[in-house]
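dumping this here before i forget
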Amino acid sequence: MTQPETDALAERQAALVRALVAGSPVPDGFDADAVAAAARALLHKRAGEVARRFPLLVHACGNDFTARFVAWAADRPKTTTAADATAFAEHAGLAPPASGPSARGRRSFPRRSR
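structure:
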């Protein structure tokens, strides 16, 4: 491959990744329905990762955690699971405490008021 061909391929790959994880438009030449399905699956996987590491965040959000998280994350690329949990918690008005024995995140989210 020539350098221009390599650069063009790299840009198409980057555009596809942005469509999959950051809500960007699907690049030409890709099946929009297939990319959308894969993007939804990745969002649900991401929500599952947060749920496994931060179960009290899920509890604080109630039964609609996954739907709320997926809607929030749809146009936000992932950095880390902990950063996702913290940013989502702040967005949901459930900011974790800044310090203390639970600062690692597993027990840092308040329970949902009933």
